Amino acid sequence: MADLVIPQTILDDMVAHARELDPYECCGLLAGTNGAVTHIYRIKNIVASEGAEKLSSFDPAKAAHLERLSPAERAEIAFVMDMQDFSTAKKNIRNKGLDLQVVYHSHPHDPARPSITDIKIATDYEEIWPKINLPIPAYLILSLMDKSKPDIRCYWIKGGTVSTAHITTSN
Amino acid sequence: MIKVRIPTPLRPLTKGQGEVDAQATSITEMIDTLNTAHPGIKDRLCDDTGELRRFVNIYVNEEDIRFLKGKETSLKDGDEVSIVPAIAGGSSCQA
Lengths: 171, 95
Description:
The structure holds two protein chains of two kinds.
Chain A: E1 4-7, H1 8-21, E2 27-33, E3 36-43, H2 46-50, H3 71-75, E4 77-80, H4 83-95, E5 99-107, H5 116-125, H6 128-131, E6 138-143, E7 151-158, E8 161-164, E9 167-170
Parallel strand pairs in A: 1-9, 5-6
Antiparallel strand pairs in A: 2-3, 2-5, 6-7, 7-8
Chain B: E1 2-5, E2 19-22, H1 27-37, H2 41-45, E3 56-60, E4 63-64, E5 80-85, E6 88-90
Parallel strand pairs in B: 1-5
Antiparallel strand pairs in B: 1-2, 3-4, 3-5
């Protein structure tokens, strides 16, 4: 049985988002009810909007949550959600009576698998979701390694362990 | 008393505590109080002009202060404040 049902139009929108931001990563949220996704929220990636030069010089004081990462892991940070956008989306999701289902981002040059950094940050976030009244989402990664054939995969990341979340596409 | 939830990355500043108490009537006052008890925490939350960094959200009872009165949002006894870092990730360093 599928963990998530995602309409083709929303998958198409995510692919379009990823292509628009390529070579930068895109990121966003999917919301719906009981695993059935109905809405997509594109979230601004601060790394993409502020330029790649900021990537290697992340001021630890600015990005406090990245401090726990090693310099190598920090250097590969490729998306940081604009939290104002995030909160706007969160409010809209709540007003519509929906739940957060998925956090998505793209990997323009790498496979659709979570990186060590992805896993570490998702694990740190595990205890935050319930505190802001959101369920622990699945993590969807969209790879553009093969530009003509985007690869979309979804995962649960719990306790540092990654498992596959099964997606079904609906029309 | 206000209960403030501290995210994992900031816990080195709070001696490992995930929750600290603060006596404050606004977010501004809460940040100053926290900074007195845990020096350095204000820099992590606010930029040079004193504005909340885009890498951070502060929620009062689950509402983002950006939708309330920002740092002037008032606090009352029993309020719960969560400091939430931005969701982030990377693409290489495959696990």
